[in-house]
Amino acid sequence: MKDKIISKASDMFLKLGFKSITMDDIAGEMCISKKTIYKYFCNKEILIEESTAAIHKEIHEIIDTIIKKDHNAIEENFEIRKMFKEMFKSSDTSPIYQLKKHYPEIYEKVMLREIDECNSVFEQNIKKGIQQGLYRENINIDNYIQFYYQLVFNIKANIVSEKEGQKIELEILEYHTRAMATPKGLLELEKHLLNYTIQ
User: Fold this and answer.
1) If both were cysteines, with which of 114, 156, 182, 195 could 96 make a disulfide (CB 3.0 to 4.6 Å apart)?
2) According to the model, what pLDDT value does residue 198 have?
3) What Pfam families is this protein classified in (predicted)?
C-alpha cells in the first residue's frame, strides 16, 4: 500500500503540482481514507520527499536503459531529452520550480541527489562523444559538465511554465553540443534538430 500511495502521489504531484495536491486529493483518487495515508506518512512533506526520491530513481533507471542502447553520444542526449518531455508533458508548471518555491528544504535534498548522478551521466556522454569523433578532444570535461549542469538546473528552477522550460532546455542542449562538436558532430546535431518537435 505504501508503494501504491507513493506512485499515485508522484503522478499527481507531477501533473498538478506539489502545492495544490492535498492528502485528501490523494485519498479520494485512490478511494482510501486519509487515515490510511497517515499510517505510512505522518505529513505531506514526508510523502513529497519519498515521492521525489521515487521519481529520481525512475528517471535514472530510464536514463540507464537509454545509455545501454548504445546510441551515439548526440543521439543519446536527444533520447534523454525526449524522455523528460514525455514524462512531464502533462505538467503546466515546472515541478522543480514548484518544489523550490514551496518546499525549499526538499528541493535542496533533491538537488544534492541529482548533482552526482547527472554529472556522471554528462561525463560518460562527453567521453563517449570524444571517442566517437563527435566532440573535440581538447575540451576541459569538468568545466563542460559544470556549464551544462548549471544551465539546465537554473532553467528548471526558475521558469514557471514546463512547456517554456522544455523549449529552453532544447536550446541549451543545442548550445552545449555546438560548443563541443567536431564538424562530424555538427552534422549529427543538425540531423536531430530537424527531427525533434516540441508539442
Assistant:
1) 156
2) 54
3) TetR_N
Q: Which residues contact 166 (CB under 8 A, 6 or more apart)?
A: 84, 85, 88, 198
Q: Please give the single-letter amino acid code of residue 187.
A: L
Contact 26, 9 (CB under 8 A): yes
CA distances from 196 to 56, 60, 73, 164 (A): 25, 22, 16, 16
Residues 6+ apart with CB under 8 A from 109: 49, 52
DSSP structure class, residue 140: -
8-66 pLDDT, tens digit per residue, is: 999 999 888 888 889 999 999 999 999 999 999 999 999 999 999 999 899 989 999 99
**β partners of residue 181:** 135
Name residue 116's amino acid. Answer: D
Fill in the DSSP letter of residue 43.
Answer: S
Q: Centre a 10 Å sphere on the Cβ of residue 194 and count the other Cβ atoms it contains.
A: 8
Say if residues 14 and 88 touch (Cβ distance below 8 Å): yes
Closest listed residue to residue 146, CA positions, set 178, 127, 123, 174:
123
Q: What is the pTM of this model?
A: 0.86
Going by C-beta distance under 8 Å and a sequence separation of 6 or more, which residues neighbour residue 108? none
Per residue in 114-169, pLDDT (tens digit) is 888 889 999 999 999 999 999 999 999 999 999 998 898 888 778 888 888 888 98
